[in-house]
Specification:
This protein has a single domain, classed as 3-Layer(aba) Sandwich (Rossmann fold). Helix content is 34%, strand content 16%. The chain has nine helices and ten strands. Helix 2 links the parallel strand 2 and strand 3. It starts with a strand and ends in a 5-residue tail after the last helix.
Length: 267
């Protein structure tokens, strides 16, 4: 794992978008694992902008999202299906057959979960998985005590997660669905590379636990410490409780792979 600290959420999100665009430019048929959440809004906005200016052509990618609420139809404006259509799929014109999300309103959820895993395999696996970090330390909807080897399945959401995500549900945590259908931690770990974005002071302590703490099923993001190619991009506020900041700053300032980015004030 490597941690990259940027000054603001905007810098961090633009860097993540640029890293995705560079990967797509190198591999136009990239299989991209997508995440939802407010943290990701500026990433998709930048990607759509890069697509618009021709800096990247996203029309050849295939996507797989991490999760969906159980019981919400695709058309529901609060669903992750809707979020993705609005923020990425429609603006760049991705055809529905190459955009995948688990169907949270499937009648047979265990079968939908197995089928989702089969679809990932059939696409050749996920090349690059984008991740946010939940307040409970979850990735996808892998709430505390999710097996670190778990596969796509239904998962009960914690009260903290339902409160965090209440914004789209009229601010009422009780209106947030009680369950999600989510890729498992084991599914996520099989992505060939992982790029996590974490911004804001509210995530500082859980980010420190996720990246510098011991690996534990209580915080599913700690499993990323086992991934051989995991980059975590954060802003200064989210980095405020990290112990190893001097080393992380040194990586961005000195490592050759970061040279193309550190010379550009946008990142
Ligand atoms: C949600 C999603 C996660 C997301 C996280 C952070 O519950 N299931 O995939 O990363 O919470 O959300 P936000 O970026 O809004 O803080």
């Amino acid at each position: 794992m490597e941690i990259i600290i940027r000054p603001t959420p905007a810098h961090a999100a633009r860097l993540v978008a640029r890293l995705v665009a560079d990967r797509v430019n190198a591999q136009p048929n990239l299989v991209l694992g997508c995440a939802t959440g407010r943290t990701m809004d500026p990433v998709y906005a930048s990607l759509v902008a890069f697509h618009g200016t021709g800096e990247v052509d996203l029309s050849g990618i295939t996507t797989f999202n991490l999760d969906e609420y159980v019981g919400l139809p695709e058309e529901d404006p609060r669903s992750y299906h809707h979020y993705m259509r609005e923020h990425l799929f429609d603006p760049v014109g991705l055809p529905p057959e190459r955009t995948h999300l688990p169907a949270g309103n499937a009648t047979d959820l265990p079968e939908e979960a197995r089928e989702y895993e089969r679809r990932i395999v059939a696409a050749g696996g996920i090349d690059l998985q984008l991740l946010g970090l939940g307040v409970t330390g979850h990735i996808g909807f892998n709430e505390p005590l999710s097996s670190l080897m778990s596969r796509t399945r239904e998962k009960a959401l914690t009260p903290e997660t339902r409160a965090q995500n209440a914004g789209l549900f009229g601010g009422d945590p009780a209106a947030v669905p009680k369950r999600g259908l989510t890729m498992g931690v084991g599914t996520i770990l099989e992505a060939r590379s992982v790029l996590m974005l974490v911004t804001g002071e509210a995530k500082a302590s859980v980010l420190a636990a996720a990246t510098e703490g011991p690996i534990t099923a209580r915080i599913s993001a700690t499993a990323l410490q086992l991934h051989p190619r995991c980059t975590v991009v954060v802003d200064e506020a989210a980095a405020s409780e990290l112990e190893g900041v001097d080393y992380y700053r040194f990586l961005y300032a000195e490592e050759p792979e970061w040279a193309p980015y550190r010379s550009d004030p946008a990142y």
